[in-house]
Amino acid sequence: GKPRVKGPRIPVSMVLELLVSGVVPTKIKRWYPDLTVADVLACIDFANRASADRDFRRVPRLNPDRRRRR
């Protein structure tokens, strides 16, 4: 299954998506009272550790100036 925050069982991916969209940890805590700011920081740490083994240099860059021609 998907990784979840231990106590409230909220998916880590949902917390990370909220952070990426600009929601601050204190607001996430207000929306999910069972979640602590430490839980949010643990989600960030989880993502950091999970991505540490990945080689992102292999991801091709998107070029917005390059258009498909028909």
Q: How are the SSEs placed, and which strands pair?
A:
Layout: H1 12-20, H2 25-31, H3 37-52
Characteristics:
70 residues, mainly alpha, 3 helices, 46% helix
Can you put this structure into words, describing what you see?
This protein has three helices and no strands. The chain is mostly helical. Helix 1 packs across helix 3 (37-52). The relative contact order is 0.14. The model has no long low-confidence stretch (mean pLDDT 83).
Judging from the principal axes of the Cα atoms, what is the shape?
Answer: globular
Write down the Rg. 16 Å
Low-confidence stretches: none
Enumerate how many helices there are, as a single number: 3
In whole angstroms, the N-to-C terminal distance is 43 Å
Largest sheet: none
Report the mean per-residue pLDDT as an integer: 83
Structural class: mainly alpha
Strand content: under 5%
The percent range for helix content is 40-55%
Number of strands: 0
Order of helical and strand elements = HHH
Short characterization:
This protein has 70 residues and is mainly α. The chain has three helices and no strands.
